[in-house]
Amino acid sequence: MGGKEGIKKITDTFVALITSDPRIKESFNDFDIPQLNQRLQEQFCEFAGGPCKYSGKYRDKTMDGVGTVRDMKSVHIDLKITNAQFNALAEDLQIAMEQHGVPSSVSNKLIAKLAPMQRDIVTASPGVQSKPDMGKFLATGGVSQLEGAGGGGLTPWALITGYGSRDSWAANAHYTHVKTQDYSLGTYGVAVGVGDRLELSLARQDFKGSLAPLNALQIKQDIVGLKVRLLGDAVYEQDVWVPQVAVGIMYKKNKGIGGLGALGVTSVTQLGAKDDSGYDYYVSATKVLFEQSLLVNGTLRATKANQMGILGFGGDQGDHAKLMPEVSVAYLINRKLALGAEYRHKPHNLGVDPEKAYYDAFVAWFPTRNVSVTAAYAHLGEITVFNKKKQKGWYLSVQTGF
Ligand code: HEM
């Protein structure tokens, strides 16, 4: 962080940012800002490996010489700080470090030390307010995955979609387009996250063929998703290994096959699928490892969906829900940019579809909390025996929300 001199410069910028940030500036109105600046420098220096120490001498304009108070809880308790305020301050610190050229891998290490202080510093009683607070860290709502849930591109994560903190809610809409050599898939939908606890999503998938004789092929599917965070916090709990864990369910209804009327095929059941609707159940575990600038997610899904349900559910090769692992890893290049890869295992139930795993490499950009753009190169494997080509191509997704 540039030694004592560097820390002083960063802290000066940081203090200027927090005392002018409309999200938190009022909290600092009645306090001795030069003293706060001094204490923060000591604390950051201690966290950066010393040799300075946070002296924690508590003094303000009216209570001169009360004594030494080092714990963050007593320093902040009267302020009734919310999660959104805590995150705003941490973001200002990231911005201050960015402005002074501190590499993201270094600033993330400091954030890793500060994040667990949330337990002591956030003492406002939780309560869901009617206005969206956009209170979470940038990128920690994930993006919208192909079935509409908050997560990566292919797989749901334990993160609740959007930027509503535990005291608020958030909503977003997305459009995703995947184009391989012979097929395209468009997904659009809306999702709501409530209290950073519950997520509801609605999505429609529109799958099309472009190679004769499947050039008029069109299959639509609707998906309703529900996710509940059970335990853990992917962001704050940097000092324990426990990840954030959520469970989810997706109800999928295949709307039938268009464009194959001449062959008399109008339903996925005519291809051998046992059903045109079904449920996926999943458990996801997500952890942001600030020390390593990584986000990791593992999902286990019980499903009998063929190609996510686009080719129906179950078939001549099997009609039982099978447990399928899905994995995502993302490197947080900076506050706004993540680079990663995903893998999603899938069942093989249909004789006419040699279904394979999906995988991709992606870059996700979060210019603001209102919009994110994800681009990926995806491998979707072979899709039906009628076209034995490995399908791969570009994936582009835009999410916008409040
Ligand atoms: C990671 C988060 C935070 C850290 C590491 C932190 C650190 C500190 C430190 C070291 C002090 C100086 C205490 C002393 O005089 O010895 C302090 C005081 C203060 N902090 Fe924080 N703080 C955090 C979050 C917040 C937030 C979110 C707010 C409000 C939005 C806030 C508002 C204040 C105020 C107003 C004081 C002055 C208190 C006083 O002098 O009595 N802090 N903080």
From TrEMBL:
Keywords: Heme, Iron, Metal-binding, Transport
InterPro entries: DUF3034, Globin-like_sf, Globin/Proto, Hemoglobin_trunc
Single Gene Ontology MF annotation: oxygen binding
Superkingdom: Bacteria
SUPFAM superfamilies assigned to the protein according to its UniProt record, in alphabetical order: Globin-like
Protein name: DUF3034 family protein
Gene source species: Pseudoduganella aquatica
